[in-house]
Amino acid sequence: MKFISVWQNLSVAAATVLMSLSVGTAAQAFTFTNPTTGNQYFLTTARSSWTEAQAEAMAAGGNLVTINDAEEQKWLLDVFGGTELFWLGLTDEQMEGVWKWSNGDNVTYTNWTPNEPNNALSYAGQYFGGENYVVMNWQSNGKWNDVANTFVKSRGIVEIVKNYIDKIPNIFEQKNERACQ
């Protein structure tokens, strides 16, 4: 009896670990939990366009990051650094000048580089047709800039909200209980 109980607990723990590793891609090898929100964050696997990074984030059960305040901005900067450009979940693709987060949230905080957003149609002779997506660390640590979808190939910061994370172990516990009966 004791052996079965231990095995069940190990199975649930192993399933939870496997789920943590398989909810997305190898990029999750380095997953960080924000102590204030409980949300988890990691980088997309490859440098890509905004739409590709957002698709990878959604496949992992999240979205590109939503930054709600200066404290969260500082935490992200401390964790991921201020030199590499990272895609954020901010876009005005639906209506020019009306910025929304990819998870549907309204914007409550911004950290734009001076004179941004500017919706530049071209840069250095290349026409992009406007700038509808946002990168962090433009010209200085943590500052944001609007850019075209394919202007830069960057990794995105993926955010998986705590409410979603909390449901994952329950799925495995329910399946494990049924399998052991």
TrEMBL record:
Pfam families membership: Lectin_C
Residues spanning the signal sequence: 1-29
Every C-type lectin domain range: 36-146
Keyword Signal: yes
Keyword line: Signal
PROSITE patterns: C_TYPE_LECTIN_2 (PS50041)
UniProt keyword annotation of Oxidoreductase present: no
InterPro entries hit by this protein: C-type_lectin-like, C-type_lectin-like/link_sf, C-type_lectin/snaclec_domain, CTDL_fold, CTLD_bac
Annotated protein name in UniProt: Lectin C-type domain protein
Organism listed in the record: Allocoleopsis franciscana PCC 7113
Record lineage: Bacteria, Bacillati, Cyanobacteriota, Cyanophyceae, Coleofasciculales
